[in-house]
Design brief:
- This protein has 356 residues and is mainly α.
- 65% of the residues lie in helices and 0% in strands.
- The model has no long low-confidence stretch (mean pLDDT 92).
């Protein structure tokens, strides 16, 4: 909005030409997101507390978590407000990629919100059934990926360390759907400790902002040996707005948390990461950028598979962060060490970009 209002005025006031630069608008988006978080955060938490929208805690979870019962949840509303307002202000709203990313974020947030409301209504931690949740997630991802396919979006698959990109053709649609749904659920599983999911997602967003900017810049893309995607650079504004929203939310979500993001927050974050990976043509690289989320998801799969096949558990508790928590690590130590792992995964992913 502000971009479209101010940039045309550069003919009359030349300093406004600065709005042509994605880097400048991305920085403004990040700062705006942090400020919106600070403005919205306090009133929203008081409103959630007044409505008694408190978190339901797993009965089989760590005993230390019982003290968190009743902490306001659905803080994802704060994340969305702080995220989408700067995008609408500073992004080029004529860019279709921006709207695809916003649509994925809002859509996954609505599915998560329905899950949160059901948990609050029935006073338990179940919410939507797993099948129902997956059904709506795949429907949403299918609509977005199908629309991209119809407008001629590239169906080539970028494989790290290889120059040649195989063309998946129509099979790209289910593949891209799986990327988006998998990312949404992996971040959702990671959300279990104060600051863990939001901090790790912020690291991944910062990483993908670099990748998206490179993908949208012909010279940088050629130098790095990654696909040039015309218009993908504008996703940098979207991602840095998300990073700002993550930083702002972390102010309230750091230990001891004043508010939890709920599924409306974690699914929105994961869906956004999946969508930007698809749009920037770096679907496989998401596995490395989000390596921490992959570890968390695999820990749940391994735990369930082991128990069904052998009747024994491979971990004290899944997801993985609870395993270490039950092993005696304080919550803050688990969170900070997992953040360090997230940074290592992110740096490793960036290091692969030139290796083709």
């Amino acid at each position: 909005m502000m971009y479209h209002l101010l940039f045309p005025l550069r003919e009359y006031f030349s300093p406004l030409n600065v709005f042509r630069y994605i880097t400048f608008r991305s920085a403004l988006a990040a700062v705006t997101a942090i400020l919106v978080s600070f403005v919205v955060g306090g009133p929203l938490i008081r409103w959630l507390r007044g409505r008694q929208y408190g978190q339901m805690v797993r009965e089989d979870g760590p005993q230390s978590h019982f003290s968190k019962r009743g902490t306001p949840t659905m803080g994802g509303i704060m994340i969305l407000a702080a995220w989408l307002v700067p995008v609408l202000l500073w992004a080029d709203l004529d860019n279709a990629f921006v709207w695809a990313a916003v649509g994925a974020t809002a859509g996954f947030a609505l599915i998560g919100l329905a899950d949160d409301l059901l948990k609050l209504k029935f006073k338990n931690s179940k919410g939507l059934s797993a099948r129902g949740k997956l059904l709506w997630q795949f429907v949403l991802a299918g609509v977005i990926c199908g629309a991209l396919y119809r407008v001629g979006f590239s169906t080539k698959l970028t494989v790290p360390f290889f120059k040649n990109s195989p063309d998946l053709g129509f099979l790209w649609i289910p593949f891209a759907m799986l990327v988006m749904v998998g990312a949404a659920n992996a971040v959702n599983l990671t959300d279990g400790l104060d600051g863990l999911a939001i901090g790790s997602t912020g690291i991944a967003m910062a990483t993908f902002s670099v990748i998206a900017y490179g993908a949208g810049h012909a010279r940088i893309a050629h130098y790095l040996g990654i696909p040039f995607v015309l218009g993908a650079g504008e996703l940098t504004v979207f991602l840095l707005a998300g990073l700002g929203a993550a930083i702002g939310f972390l102010w309230f979500n750091c230990h001891p948390a004043e508010v939890f993001m709920g599924d409306c927050g974690s699914m929105a974050l994961g869906g956004a990461l999946g969508a930007t990976a698809v749009l920037a043509k770096q679907e496989i690289l998401l596995v490395l950028v989000g390596g921490l989320f992959v570890m968390e998801a695999l820990s749940v799969i391994a735990q369930v598979a082991s128990f069904k096949l052998t009747g024994k558990r491979v971990l004290r508790m899944a997801p993985l962060h609870h395993h270490f928590e039950l092993g005696g690590w304080p919550e803050t130590k688990v969170v900070i060490r997992f953040w360090i792992l997230a940074v290592l995964f992110a740096l490793s992913a960036v290091a692969t970009l030139k290796l083709r």
